[in-house]
Fold these 4 entries.
Entry 1:
Amino acid sequence: MKKTILDLNRMAAAGERITYLTAYDYLTAKYQERAGVEMILVGDSMGMVTQGYETTFPVTMDDMISASRAVRRGAPGTFVVGDMPYMSYQVSDEQAVENAGRFVKEAGCDAVKLEGCTPSIVQRVRAIAEAGILVSGHIGLTPQFAGQLGGYKAQGRTAENALKLLDQAQALEKAGAAMILVEGVPAIVGKAITERAGIPILGIGAGSYTHGQLLIYADMVGMYDNFTPKFVRKYADVGAELLRGFTEYCKDVKEGRFPDDREHSYKISGDEAAKLD
Ligand code: KIV
Ligand code: NA
């Protein structure tokens, strides 16, 4: 049965921790759904993870729609959140609703996510929710605001800033957000936000008290090695396995051990083969 917002609300209310990972393609999504992952974020982190950019800024709506479609095909029963890329919602409510609609209409996403909590972002959340689309807020370390934050820095590390995050969570909830992602804050700040919330709070690097836990999949399976944040635990070493497989393939081809003509080649009858002589 396909996961809905009602399932997420029920899990959050029951204290059943929600599992959440990013994915950007069909195969990864398929393995995640098989493993029991309940939510998938098609994150604009795909800019770094699958496109090799240094930031999320260059990612386009078309990139996100294409990736979201692939993820949906791989994980038809999972709650899929489409991440609104830079400048796909900042300009106006109309732009935000139109692009949020594309995630639902063209890619079959269950919800969209947008970053920040400035007055205009709160307005965007309200506009998208009023269009009937589930919206996830995203506060704390918000990469699309990296310029203003002075880089990818943990947030909520002063009482003043932590209180501001609490206010932001409440403002987003009031505006109609269906859930909020909290990124890069101390555990007690994640706890305070979660305790005050009436909607599911998902955390990434926000401690153990949030209703759900998100990680960038390529970090936790040891594929993305340019940089690993403090909050990541490595559950597999897929990068090392890929390197081993690719290296052995190169060696076998160079040294004539692959392919093996009995094992990896198509058959032709002796009669037909004789005609080739
Ligand atoms: O794009 C993404 O993957 C995200 C998470 C890192 C929070 O927004
Ligand atoms: Na993102």
Note: Strands lie at 18-22, 39-42, 79-83, 111-113, 134-140, 179-183, 201-204, 212-215.
Entry 2:
Amino acid sequence: MAIESSVFEKEVCSLMEVGKSESGGRHAAAYRQVILPAYAKINLFLDILSARDDGYHNIDGIMHAVTLCDYVSVSIGGFDGQQVFVECSDPSLPSGKGNLAYRAAELFMEQTGLTGYSVNIGIEKNIPVSAGLAGGSTDAAAVIRALGYIFDIDKNTLFKVAEKIGSDVAFCLMGGCARAEGTGNVLTPLSPMGKCFIVIGFKGKGVSTPEAYGKADGIYHPGRKEERHAELGRLSELITGSPSDYSGSLFNVFESVVLPEHDGASELKKILSECGAEAVLMSGSGPSVFGLFGNRDSAETAKRKLSGIGARTFIARPERTSLI
Ligand code: ATP
């Protein structure tokens, strides 16, 4: 699927009206096709507070959308025996139910009671997979958002669908910057990051999020909660300024379990610091790491160095738009 990048020049979502639906009724479709950027996220702060009985964990942290993105196209047609089709530019990803975008469309249809439509999804994958950047979650969120536009569905319903898919999907649906609590589904919007260049590097094998949580069990304890809480509060106040103002407050509980076993991520962190990053951290359960730079030249130098040792490297900007 080739998508013209010019379609995405605007920071806000682009809707492509290919033709009005002719079907009437409660859910008459306003658009036939919608193409959206699906932004990656980074975690500026991530702590685990407790394990839950349902197998999930209670977390506390700050997530931020960045301009690194996949492109997701969603179009609808008449029902012809299979309701959802996924075509993805990355052949290693599943095209059926295993794809989070597929599950998003299926759950959306179930939750809204829509029948009589097929949903065709195209994904142009740019975000590294199993990298701690919420690549799958953001594709799922883009599908929900696109179907929301197509069928004019209210926000609450969209968030209900998002929460059923995975803990990062609700944030990806919201975008911008937010404090994330609960399993990641309790979101409080925050003022977004100030201007900076975000160099993201990914090298070596991906990390399975459930496995990383398994390893992290036992390394967190309630005693540290207040100290962490204060740091998180400081970070949310300083985040609109220069990264050097808040670099000491960045935190990711997964660093202590993932970095010792992942030479690639540790190496990238070291290089980013040597290149003058004002702040460096691993994102999510890793192994992607990011460095925040105040100017483009040093960000470009860091990108070259990371690429030079075989890392997939991107320069992104904070994506501040609240999407919903
Ligand atoms: P998070 O930061 O939310 O924990 P991640 O960035 O570490 O996520 P993903 O890239 O979302 O990890 O991939 C996690 C798993 O989801 C992989 O096993 C992958 O095969 C599967 N997956 C399903 N659909 C997608 C998709 N559309 N894009 C990426 N991965 C997907």
Note: The first strand starts at residue 33 and ends at 51.
Entry 3:
Amino acid sequence: MQKQLISGIAFLAIGIATVNAQQKMKPEDTEYYTPVPNVVTPGKTCGEAPSDAIILFNGKDLSKWVETNDTTMQAAWDVHNGIVTVSKKSGNIQTKERFMDYQLHLEWKEPKNIAGTGQARGNSGLFLASTGKGDDGYELQILDSYNNSTYVNGQAGAVYKQYPPLVNANFPPGVWQSYDVIWTAPRFNEDGSLKSPAKVTAFFNGILVQNNVNLKGPTLYIGNPSYKPHGASPIKLQAHGDKSLPISFRNIWVRPLPDPNQ
Ligand code: MG
């Protein structure tokens, strides 16, 4: 009983001391002035590149891109009228530059007369990190999912076979659509074990479809994902082998982000 009384008094004393300390603090004690955030000029419209973005595709050329399966080869997709259309025979393309964490904006459009069903209807993909040839990496799915049934973790806005989108935010084929993505690259310990998983937040046509999800590893067509260590990686676009018409892209930019742990 006496023990309980003593611990009760001690608890009360700590509480009073905390309140007193709060009352003695001034507003200035929790305000700081450096480092000052950089000034960045926003684009004129939402989606237009801000002043500090790296422009990955400006409507004129693919000088920032190479072929995934032979990175000595310049990307050879079809650039015309300010857009780039997938060349299915030349395969996936990826950036020359490698990235860790970033904010990315990309616009894509399905052909108005797209045909096919399921995964064979305007399939492409945004690989947030390309970890090797072909489809190695972490894919945010691109597909015509306006009125097209497939497995939900394979529809547009899905982290392929890991997380379905929170909602179906597709415009119909023939309309430009946008992805705005925040990518946090996975971190690995010196022994190759996973330190922290990759994370994705994604907006599809301005609507949140992935809310800071923890990836289970690179996205796989077959099997369960698991991590293999890697560092900064290219960003990759998919030339999917289905028979439907190729999709197009425009206005692709990226803003590398500081390491959240430094
Ligand atoms: Mg795909």
Note: Residues 2-24 form the longest helix (23 residues).
Entry 4:
Amino acid sequence: MSTQSTQPKPVQKESSGGAFYAGRGVTKTPMISHAKGIFFWDTDGKRYLDGSSGAVAANIGHGNERVRDAMIEQAKRFSYVVRTAFTSEATETLSRMIAELAGPGFDQTFLVSGGSEAIESTLKLARQYAVVTGQPKRSKVLARMPGYHGSTLGAAAVTGDPDRDQMFGPIMRVMPKIPAPLSYRIPDGYDVHSYADHCADELERQILAEGEDTVLAFIMEPVGGVATGALVAPNSYYSKVRKICDRYGVLLIFDEVMCGAGRTGTFLAAHHWPDALPDLVACAKGLSAGYTPLGAMIAPNRIVDKVVESGGFLHGHTYSGNPLSSAIGVAVLSELVNQNLMENAQRMGVILRQKLNALKDRSTTIGDVRGIGLLNAVEIVEDKATKAIFPAARQASYRVSEIARDLGLHIYSRRAASGKFGEWFMAAPPLIITEPEIGL
Ligand code: PLP
């Protein structure tokens, strides 16, 4: 008789095939056993500090018991009904909470399962609004190079990444791009301010070149994510962009998938520039802080009403407004507010950047430290004087992530668009981090 079934199964220590994921930086991924606060542990008992909140998602930290209890409570009652026919208290509460936190002018929330779905929703709502208000020629969505808006085809079409365009361009309609107002790699003859001004002027130039009545929207990350490494533009850029969009009837869409939900110290990153609020917002990651897949489009009545009156929004997903995800979202946002985590993100962000800048002064390979709140990036270079990027073969940013992981620190890194725009890792720990923990 075989004894196989009575043998204890060895604990699996790392990924072993049978599933594959995005990226190429990490070849063998450790298996995680449990997590608490800003830390998680693998099955060998090794501890990791979550320096990038996973993929800049775990805003309230791991193992939050109030979130777990809310999840259990909702699961005990029911987990799913289809949103087009039924709703739940959790779905209604979350929708209201998001709209209230987003503030005046953001009246309605459309719940989805993640960032790419939230982006798709903004693109489709914008298009449907244009059609039902008698502007059917408007179909082009301008975006920035570099930029990242997600993996689905609509989101990829507005993503500014030549590698992805080359690969996926033939199966989608790649949208026109204008330069992002980079603050570290500025072309000769400009400084940060004049280059940002130039980039905003490029928006106007591109609208006119495309034909102003054909441009539907302009989409941008108000604070950059991995594509630009936490890029923040000078204040004047935002107001200039807003005015240009108004001048030509172009909708302004902010991708706050990464920078929203409190990450930069305000609920929306847009709140840092109140004179330049967008028409539509896509939000995700921090809304559920990694406890469940969740995203949202936030939109004003003036747009939603027109679309609803015309017969309804021609877009939705099986898990739109999922009750279980909604209950988790309510618990996560309650933690964000009740623990003053946005204020903590502002204070800890200042301290984190001070420490990273001190490190930069001593380092030969840290070229730039930038960001706002707890959305920060550390740009690495081969030569600080020339800002030269490491050759691709060195896979420098991935190597930094791997070395950090070996040392017990998780950092999310990116070599953007074949390295043409630089490479960096994200310094974006959970918003619950304390000053002593930043020193760890
Ligand atoms: N937009 C931005 C700015 C992002 O950072 C991401 C993901 O990292 C997305 C969109 C896509 O979100 P998701 O991966 O949840 O589909």
Note: Residues 341-362 form the longest helix (22 residues).
